[in-house]
């Protein structure tokens, strides 16, 4: 569908980045959601535990106040006037105590508000009388003030004998103040329930002292409400008006009250919306950067390859003036791609020099072959004249002397022509040897280009090996980052446990709680840092995989260039073979010229003998005629070889003229 390597690379990188970032973002979101959920649950349970501890300390404080009254002699004397004088100031000084009271063994009660009645039927009186230990009554409403109250009653002993009860009517307004401050990580609200399920403290005053909240909140909340009363502590999820809510609760052991904290799940998980939006923008930015980087890398690889292909096509069409402007490409001239571009330029320049020399030599060869052909024609003509002269000698001896002089002159001219032809033949041999050397040099250039391309190919493989090693190292780093992340999780868990222990220690552990919170924040920052490092490592591994793929494509292009250079080398081998054949033909022409010169010398010697001994001309004329026939035959061979040489020269000239140099 997409023919361009650059387009394929950009689409592939974009798709991989999208899948990687989308997957990692989804995984990170789910992990963050789980971590936040666990953190919120822990925070809610911790907050409920702190509230329970606060109430426990408050009840313990009030209980000790009443318990310590038993050690006063005035209280143990059971003399009301003395008791009143000690109890009244204490009651007046503590706004949470409505009154202090004394109960005699028969149930008669007097308090600091000068109220007197029988409490023999009250459960707290019966429990103290029976168990001889301090009790907290069930919360109720004060008949004097209408405030929610609880009664703290302790036995009075005198010489180990039970002589009465000292107690206090304690207002529970402080519980309402505590409830207002309760929340889960700044969200929701808190409430306090007694053992019967009545609400002792709630932000809504309409729910105080009753269970009306059950009717208003619905069945889902009612099930959770029942769990508040039956379990000592826990963490619950329920639905209210189509929304999910979460609640944490714990029980105050001494008084059997329940502290419950609840909040909307949407409010608790609101930070995840910010994380999701941030992840989206970060992913979009990362994909955009990845597309830009992949485009730049693809362009830096594809543009030089396209230019090499264009130059190769034009060189194949015969244009040897083409060159690659290496400085126009954003490549390092010392790396494999830069060396390949320079090698292509060197190869084309070598071709240009070879073809130029071959073209020049072909022109000279064509000119020499034409001269040789003309000389051969002249020799043939002279040989025919010699033959005619020999025939005239045989026909008439009277004209022999005059013909011998003419023949001698013709033979001298023939000897000069033959010598000239021999010199030109030698020159043609030298030129042919030069052409052969140039072709061999061109073959060496081509072989050098092949070797250079093979070196580039090996270097490219070495780069791929180094990149794969880089990918292995990045994976080892990823394993180390995972180990650091695990250590950060364990540190976070230890910090959370330390914070819980500090909360249990109360005021004495407050400083240690601050240190534990700092440790937990550092652990969370370490986890975030390792998460970012992990993302970077994944991005590096993705880039390493892409570089390997690009190297493989570059390897294929280099192999194609090597094949083109090898094909060019085969063409030069054919040219070298043709030049070898041409050199053999020239050697044959030179051999025939030498034979012609020998025959010409022999004819000239015969003519001299004829001039010296004319009486023997008749007998020698047959020999001269035979030599003349041989000379004509040799001349015909020279002319034929010259024509073939001219044809080869024209073919060679036509072959090299298709190159533009």
TrEMBL record:
Pfam families: dCache_1, HAMP, MCPsignal. Keywords: Cell membrane, Chemotaxis, Coiled coil, Membrane, Transducer, Transmembrane, Transmembrane helix. Residues 375-632 form the Methyl-accepting transducer domain. Residues 519-599 form a coiled coil. InterPro entries: dCache_1, HAMP_dom, MCPsignal_dom, Sensor-like_sf. GO terms for cellular component: plasma membrane. PROSITE patterns: CHEMOTAXIS_TRANSDUC_2, HAMP. One of its GO terms (biological process) is chemotaxis. SUPFAM superfamilies: Methyl-accepting chemotaxis protein (MCP) signaling domain (SSF58104), Sensory domain-like (SSF103190). It comes from the Bacteria. It is found in: Cell membrane. Residues 299-356 form the HAMP domain. The chain crosses the membrane at residues 280-298. It is a multi-pass membrane protein. Belongs to the methyl-accepting chemotaxis (MCP) protein family. This is Methyl-accepting chemotaxis sensory transducer with Cache sensor.
């Amino acid at each position: 569908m997409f023919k361009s390597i650059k387009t394929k690379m950009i689409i592939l990188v974009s798709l991989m980045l999208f899948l990687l970032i989308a997957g990692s973002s989804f995984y990170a979101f789910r992990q963050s959601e789980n971590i936040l959920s666990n953190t919120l649950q822990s925070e809610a349970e911790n907050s409920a535990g702190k509230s329970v501890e606060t109430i426990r300390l408050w009840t313990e404080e009030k209980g000790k106040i009443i318990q310590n009254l038993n050690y006063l002699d005035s209280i143990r004397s059971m003399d009301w006037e003395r008791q009143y004088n000690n109890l009244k100031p204490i009651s007046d000084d503590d706004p949470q105590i409505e009154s202090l009271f004394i109960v005699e063994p028969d149930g008669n009660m007097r308090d600091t508000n000068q109220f007197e009645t029988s409490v023999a039927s009250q459960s707290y009186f019966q429990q103290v009388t029976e168990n001889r230990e301090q009790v907290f009554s069930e919360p109720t409403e004060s008949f004097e003030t209408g405030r929610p109250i609880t009664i703290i009653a302790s036995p009075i002993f005198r010489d180990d004998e039970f002589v009465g009860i000292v107690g206090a009517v304690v207002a529970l307004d402080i519980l309402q103040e505590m409830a207002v401050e309760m929340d889960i990580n700044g969200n929701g609200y808190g409430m306090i329930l007694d053992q019967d399920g009545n609400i002792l403290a709630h932000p809504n005053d309409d729910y105080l002292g009753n269970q009306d909240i059950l009717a208003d909140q619905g069945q889902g909340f009612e099930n959770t409400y029942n769990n508040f009363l039956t379990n000592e502590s826990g963490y619950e999820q329920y639905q209210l008006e189509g929304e999910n809510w979460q609640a944490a609760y714990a029980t105050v052991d001494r008084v059997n009250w329940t502290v419950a904290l609840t909040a909307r799940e949407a409010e608790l998980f609101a930070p995840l919306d910010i994380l999701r939006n941030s992840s989206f923008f970060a992913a979009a930015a990362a994909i955009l950067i990845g597309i830009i980087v992949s485009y730049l890398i693809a362009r830096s690889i594809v543009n030089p390859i396209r230019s090499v292909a264009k130059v190769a096509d034009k060189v194949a069409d015969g244009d040897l003036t083409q060159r690659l402007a290496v400085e126009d490409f954003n490549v390092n001239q010392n790396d494999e791609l830069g060396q390949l571009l320079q090698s292509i330029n060197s190869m084309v320049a070598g071709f240009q020099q070879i073809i130029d020399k071959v073209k020049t030599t072909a022109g000279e060869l064509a000119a020499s072959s034409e001269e040789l052909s003309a000389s051969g024609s002249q020799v043939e003509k002279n040989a025919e004249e010699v033959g005619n002269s020999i025939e005239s000698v045989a026909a008439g001896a009277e004209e022999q002397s005059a013909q011998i002089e003419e023949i001698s002159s013709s033979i001298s001219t023939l000897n000069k022509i033959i010598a000239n032809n021999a010199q030109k033949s030698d020159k043609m041999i030298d030129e042919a040897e030069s052409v052969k050397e140039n072709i061999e040099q061109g073959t060496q250039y081509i072989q050098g280009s092949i070797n250079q391309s093979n070196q580039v190919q090996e270097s490219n493989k070495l780069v791929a090996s180094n990149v794969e090693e880089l990918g292995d190292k990045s994976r080892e780093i990823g394993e180390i980052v995972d180990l650091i992340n695990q250590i950060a999780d364990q540190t976070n868990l230890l910090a959370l446990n330390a914070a819980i222990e500090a909360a249990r220690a109360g005021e004495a552990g407050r400083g240690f709680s601050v240190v534990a919170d700092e440790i937990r924040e550092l652990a969370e920052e370490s986890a975030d840092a390792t998460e970012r490092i992990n993302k970077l490592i994944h991005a590096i591994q993705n880039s390493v995989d892409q570089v390997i793929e690009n190297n493989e494509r570059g390897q294929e292009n280099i192999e194609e260039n090597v094949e083109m250079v090898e094909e060019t080398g085969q063409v030069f081998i054919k040219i070298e073979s043709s030049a070898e054949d041409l050199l053999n033909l020239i050697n044959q022409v030179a051999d025939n010229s030498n034979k012609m010169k020998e025959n010409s010398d022999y004819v000239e010697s015969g003519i001299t003998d004829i001039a010296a001994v004319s009486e023997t001309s008749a007998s020698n004329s047959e020999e001269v005629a035979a030599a003349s026939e041989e000379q004509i035959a040799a001349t015909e061979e020279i002319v034929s070889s010259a024509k073939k040489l001219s044809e080869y020269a024209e073919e060679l000239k036509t072959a090299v003229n298709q190159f533009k140099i």
